[in-house]
Amino acid sequence: VQENVLQRVLQLPVVSSTCETLQRTYTSTKEAHPLMASVCEVYEWGVQGAGALAMWGMEPVVRRLEPQIAVANNLACRGLDHLEEKIPALQYPVDK
């Protein structure tokens, strides 16, 4: 199974803890402000629809570009290996 650079980045403690903090803030803001919650729900629905449409439209292009995407992914994974080696702070949550 080939590594996916995006999954690796999202698994870095500094990134995952930042995403968790943003998610908690977003959720608590929606809970505290009902009007904001309704606006956010409309936005979320729109983003999901646009994302699905984009994926459907991009599928043929992605299939054709799979070899190039695999090469770019491998290069990005090697670059991430180097960053993780040189910047140990990436292995710690934001609060540390």
TrEMBL record:
Signal peptide: none annotated. GO terms for cellular component: lipid droplet. Its main location: other. The keyword Ribosomal protein does not apply. Keywords: Lipid droplet. GO terms for biological process: lipid metabolic process. It is found in: Lipid droplet. InterPro entries: Perilipin, PLIN1. The keyword Zinc-finger does not apply. Belongs to the perilipin family. This is PLIN1 protein. The lineage of its organism: Eukaryota, Metazoa, Chordata, Craniata, Vertebrata.
